[in-house]
Design a protein that fits this description.
The structure holds two protein chains of two kinds. In chain A, 33% of the residues lie in helices and 31% in strands. Chain A is of the alpha/beta class. Chain B has one domain: MetI-like (MetI-like fold, Orthogonal Bundle). Chain B is 82% helix and 0% strand. Classes of the chains: A alpha/beta, B mainly alpha.
């Protein structure tokens, strides 16, 4: 982690805020009518974060991220990057700042007329480096994304994953402090997505840069982010560290996103018809020491049948998050007790379906 | 030569004149093409950057050039060429011959060429422009390194289309005393019923058009990846 800037974080051990949104709003003029793309967004992104911004299409994710490098202006509120108010920068200062904020895109946006090396060199032409120094930097960058042997190819000759690697190398050319990723894996197949996400995570660890990731899939957030903001109709409906969001989602939209990600979510829908003395529950356990043994303990202690329908453990960051869908069979009173017991052991229990008996 | 003089009896006795007319047409296409290429590129860049959502959005400038080009494009060339005769005299000193032909040809072809160029530049993926903006490039750099550089193949294509159009305009200008092969075809082929003169002119035009299209295709092939 780099030394904190003299501002915000004096006297604290947490990393400095690098990007700060303060009550940001953006209104577009659509056929004479104002449409709010962003509405009162307040967020802080810290140095070294891999910060996820998730939402459905049209939620304002892309607009929000583009206010960081001033491609989009704001209608209200303020965006500060490295302590500088974006709206107050003169054009030249803004261009200077942009060289220190790399950006990658869903469609890669590589220049088709230039080779791989030419594309990576492209942002270096304003850097004041000599031709030789530029060539050396290009070689370093291509080595970093493991594409050295493709340097003379044209983008059209590359696969999607390779194109995104070139784009990442290009975005890192001027040693940026911040990397913006706009749906960078949305056009890629699952395997390539994994590889690109791993590369981003790696680069963050190696270079200590701050990465802002836009995604519409929770999988991406789960894979690499440490914090996430959920955006709906231009407002932040939930913001927390990724583990907490997965373990205990608050907003309905977040719950939907998570349900779509995990097989556990799908499992809820596949439940069979319940008998009159059965309750279908979803359990989520956060702590490592809690596990399925809890179920057999409960089963013995309360003399009920607990039938596991589905179980999974997912890894978020370095911590596991477990989930079980099970049916409890017993009297209404006992079932209540079992659920109470689970809750007392800090297992998050959600009753999906209960018989009325 | 005997063979040619049997096929084209009226042309072969005027070989020197035919040759001069061919050169005149080439000069017309060369000068007009070059001047108009530069002008059209400038107009196309202005249109592309000032249009709504463009790099330097400016509705007033955009509307002015957009309407101006439409106005000149809607005038049939033969009417434009004759109406312009007084202006041509002021600008070029004469309204006839090679010198008199160049000015009306530039005014006639540039609106068409500009629209063609504009469509070439509009073919550049807006994502590339956004990427360049995000890297901190200035507007002139984006025009040069993205808009123009990435549309070379398209520019070559529209240029060869425009040259073919320009060739037929050079024939029309011959009607109003502009010289060149058009003039030759009118004077001998049309007015004196020497059908072989018309055919010879058509054949030369065919060669010119073939060259223009082949050159265009070569540039496209070399710049597309």
């Amino acid at each position: 982690m780099t030394a904190p800037e003299s501002t915000a974080s004096v006297g604290t051990s947490s990393p400095a805020t690098i990007i700060e949104f303060d009550n940001v709003s953006k209104v577009y003029d659509v056929d004479g009518e104002g449409r709010k793309a962003l509405d009162g967004v307040t967020l802080a992104i810290h140095e070294g974060d891999i910060y996820g911004i998730i939402g459905l299409s049209g939620a304002g994710k892309s607009t929000l991220v583009r206010t960081i490098n001033g491609i989009e202006s704001v209608s209200g509120g303020s965006v500060r990057v490295e302590g500088k108010e974006i709206g107050e920068l003169r054009p030249k200062e803004l261009r200077g700042l942009r060289t220190r904020i790399g950006m990658i895109f869903q469609n890669f946006n590589l220049m088709p007329s230039r080779t791989v090396a030419g594309n990576v060199e492209f942002p270096l032409r304003n850097s004041g480096l000599s031709k030789q120094e530029r060539a050396q930097r290009v070689a370093e960058l291509l080595d970093l994304v493991e594409l050295s042997e493709h340097s003379d190819k044209f983008p059209a000759e590359l696969s999607g994953g390779q194109k995104q690697r070139v784009a990442i190398a290009r975005a890192l050319a001027n040693n940026p402090d911040i990397l913006l990723s706009d749906e960078a894996t949305s056009a890629l197949d699952p395997l390539t997505t994994e590889a690109i996400l791993a590369l981003l995570k790696n680069l963050q660890a190696k270079l200590g840069i701050t990465i802002v990731v836009i995604a519409h899939q929770m999988q991406v957030i789960k894979e690499i982010c440490n914090r996430v903001a959920v955006l709906e109709h231009g407002t932040v409906v939930e913001e927390n560290d990724v583990y907490s969001v997965f373990a205990n989602p608050q907003a309905d939209l977040t719950k939907q996103f998570i349900a779509n990600t995990s097989a556990l979510g799908q499992g809820e829908n596949t439940a069979t018809e319940l008998a009159s003395d059965e309750t279908l529950i979803k359990m989520q356990y956060v702590d490592q020491n809690v596990s399925e043994s809890l179920i057999s303990t409960a089963s013995r202690q309360f003399d009920v049948d607990i039938d596991i329908r589905f179980a999974e453990v997912s890894q978020i960051g370095s911590r596991p998050l477990g989930g079980i869908i099970a049916v409890i069979k017993g009297s209404a009173e006992t079932r209540e007790k079992v659920i109470g017991y689970f809750r007392s052991r800090s297992v998050n229990v959600e009753v999906l379906e209960a018989s009325r008996a | 030569m005997n063979f040619l003089s049997t096929l084209f009896p009226d042309v072969s006795v005027r070989m020197d004149e035919f040759y001069d007319c061919t050169v005149e047409t080439l000069i017309m296409v060369g000068i007009v093409g070059l001047v108009s290429f530069v002008l059209s590129l400038v107009f196309a860049v202005i249109l592309t950057t000032t249009k709504p959502g463009g790099l330097s959005e400016n509705t007033a400038v955009y509307q002015f050039f957009d309407k101006l080009i439409n106005l000149f494009r809607s005038i049939p060339f033969i009417i434009l060429a004759t109406t312009m005769i007084p202006f041509t005299r002021i600008v070029m000193g004469t309204a006839i011959g090679l010198k008199g032909a160049i000015f009306p040809l530039i005014v006639g072809i540039t609106p068409f060429f500009s629209r063609q160029m504009e469509s070439a530049l509009l073919g550049v993926d807006p994502g590339l422009v956004e990427a360049a903006v995000s890297m901190g490039l200035s507007k002139p750099q984006i025009v040069w390194r993205v808009y123009l550089r990435e549309s070379i193949a398209q520019i070559a294509k529209v240029t060869s289309i425009t040259i073919v159009n320009l060739l037929s305009m050079t024939a029309v200008i011959g009607v109003v005393g502009g010289g060149g092969l058009g003039d030759f075809a009118i004077r001998y082929g049309f007015q004196r019923y020497m059908i072989d003169a018309s055919i010879a002119v058509v054949l030369v035009y065919l060669v010119f058009i073939y060259i223009a299209e082949t050159a265009g295709k070569l540039v496209i092939a070399r710049t597309s990846h």
